[in-house]
Write a structure and sequence with these properties.
single chain; Rossmann fold; 4-stranded parallel sheet; 10 helices; about 50% helix
């Protein structure tokens, strides 16, 4: 005689086993998905993206908005950039209003609540700078007649590698809050990066310290942090009002100063008005040094550390030209 109850029990047991098996599969896929999920980091600048890659390692996916060869003051707020921000878990930006002309527009277009001001996914990297470390903070009233003045101070602090170390540690702390499971890895990588930068800095400093020519004329107020770190001296700025073409009288006065105090080096970034900087170099009998102002600004500047290798190497090479032409220019 057929045991109906026994068959029903066996059927129920089989059903339970199938449900448990299915649940285990779902749980396994979920855990696996969490294990491989990466924190999506969007950096405004190439320097910040490179640092984020070193600190984040395999735990992050990094992209950036402003290409290294572009002047970071001016970037079209394209929809494609807003789409990058829309997917971000963490936005890292330079701060000190460097990106003020385009980042707020992109944030509004992205509509990503995770990276809005005040949220865990928003990181102003200028917070890595200590008290008194921000250069050229304006005193008194600032208005547009003075050019594109940064009221919070000079924002180009990443041209001092010591600031790069501080930014790396700041990123590690924020990533640890967003992704606690990888906190130790983030902090370990940041310290490894710090040691690597510090070991390279000794060579860079020695390389520039050996230079006889220590006075420079810069096209834009982009190099103050670099100059302070390396112990150089800025005689003057060609673009005396940022973002506004220099007045001829100002340029002539700068040329005369360069002739009197030469030999000097004339420094410009790859995106500056190279022809104008070249005229000043020619009339002062000085060497023109066109430097990468950012990671990836040139093929040789293929990383943040490579950028400093290129900068220090070009300064050393240009000194020979400055010494050869300085006597003629000052005569």
């Amino acid at each position: 005689m057929l045991n109906i109850n026994s068959n029903r029990s066996a059927g129920r047991a089989a059903t339970v086993r199938m449900c448990v098996f299915a649940a285990l599969i779902v749980l396994s896929l979920t855990v696996s998905g969490q294990a491989v999920a990466k924190v999506k980091v969007v950096a405004t600048l190439a320097d910040l993206a490179w640092i984020a890659e070193q600190v984040g390692g395999d735990d992050v996916e990094v992209s950036f908005l402003c290409k290294g060869h572009r002047d970071p003051h001016f970037l079209p707020a394209k929809p494609s950039l807003a789409r990058k921000l829309k997917k971000a878990d963490l936005l890292v930006y330079n701060g000190l209003e460097l990106e003020i002309g385009w980042l707020p527009l992109l944030l509004d277009a992205a509509r990503n609540p995770r990276i809005r001001p005040g949220q865990q996914g928003e990181l102003n990297c200028a917070l890595a700078l200590g008290e008194g470390e921000i250069l050229e903070v304006p005193v008194g009233e600032v208005d547009r007649s003075q050019g594109d003045i940064h009221p919070l101070g000079n924002p180009h602090y990443l041209l001092d590698p010591r600031k790069g170390i501080a930014v790396g540690r700041l990123m590690a702390d924020r990533l640890a809050r967003i992704d606690p499971a990888a906190a130790d890895r983030y902090r370990s990588r940041a310290e490894h990066l710090a040691r690597e930068i510090e070991s390279r800095m000794e060579d860079w400093e020695a390389q520039v310290d050996s230079l006889a020519v220590k006075k420079v004329i810069v096209y834009h107020q982009h190099w103050e942090y670099l100059v302070e770190w390396l112990g150089l001296e800025i005689l003057g700025v060609i673009e005396n009002r940022p973002g506004i073409s220099p007045a001829p009288r100002h340029v002539e006065g700068l040329i005369e100063l360069g002739r009197l105090q030469g030999p000097v080096l004339v420094i410009a970034a790859t995106w500056d008005h190279i022809e104008a900087a070249g005229r000043v170099a020619e009339k002062t009998g000085s060497a023109l040094v066109v430097l990468p102002g950012s990671t990836y600004a040139t093929e040789e500047a293929a990383g943040y550390l490579d950028m400093f290798e290129v900068i220090c190497g070009k300064l050393e090479t240009a000194e020979e030209t400055a010494e050869e032409t300085g006597a003629e220019g000052g005569s």
